[in-house]
Structure formats: structure tokens, C-alpha cells
Amino acid sequence: VGSPVSGIVEKLYVKPGSLVRQGEPLFKLDDRKLRARLPLLESKVAAAKSEMKKFRDIFEIDEKLYRQAPGTISQKDYEISRDNYLHAMDLWKKAKAITVTTWTWIISVR
């Protein structure tokens, strides 16, 4: 028997040797450490979203200049702006995924 997260068993729902059905909870883990991580994870999501929006706004301006006023921004600067935005978006998505995974673990250890 295993769990995707480590922790102290807080409560046993079955006795050793008992027959159990698939999906039946066997134990509850102490989730205090996971819950303590949430405020930090949520602040990282907010910061990453703010950065992503900043780079998105810059990219939208640069893209408009690149397409509508040729020569005002170089292709290299346009590509750097685009790549910065895509990188910031990726970091935001990863931060959200880690937070969602942590919430899922908290729910599953109940």
C-alpha cells in the first residue's frame, strides 16, 4: 500500500487482514504540512500570473508594431518578446498545476 505523499497516518479505517473494496479508503494522513504549503503556492501562482500578464501586454504591443509598422521593431526583438511571454505563461501554468496537485493530495489523504 502506498501514497503519492508521505505523512503520518492519522486514522485507520480498516483492520489488518480485512477485506476491502477497490477505492475504499484505508487510512487518513495528517495533511497539516500540505495545507501549510498552500499560501506560498497560491502566492507563487499570483506572482506568476502577474508576470505573465506583464509580458503578454508587452508582446501585444511589440506584435502590433512588428506587423503594422515594419521596421519599428526588429524581428529579433519581436521574437524575444514573444519568447518571454510564452516562458512566463509556462511558469504560470506550472505554478497552477503544482497548487492543484497539492489540493488534490489534501483531498485524497482525508
Order of helix and strand elements from N to C terminus: EEHH
Radius of gyration: 23 Å
The total of helices stands at 2
Shape: rod-shaped
What about the largest sheet? 2 strands, antiparallel
Strand content: 5-15%
The total count of strands amounts to 2
- Category by helix and strand content: mainly alpha
What are the low-pLDDT stretches, counting only 5+ consecutive residues below 50?
none
Termini, distance in Å?
A: 16 Å
Strand order of the largest sheet: 1-2
Query: Helical amount among residues, as a percent range?
Result: 55-70%
What is the overall pLDDT average? 90
What does it look like?
It contains two helices and two strands, in the order ββαα. The protein is mainly alpha-helical and 110 residues long. It has a two-stranded antiparallel sheet with strand order 1-2. α1 (32-68) packs antiparallel against α2 (75-108). The two termini are 16 Å apart. The relative contact order is 0.17.
Features:
single chain; mainly alpha
Write a short abstract of this structure:
This protein is mainly alpha-helical and 110 residues long.
How are the SSEs placed, and which strands pair?
Layout: E1 9-12, E2 27-29, H1 32-68, H2 75-108
Antiparallel strand pairs: 1-2
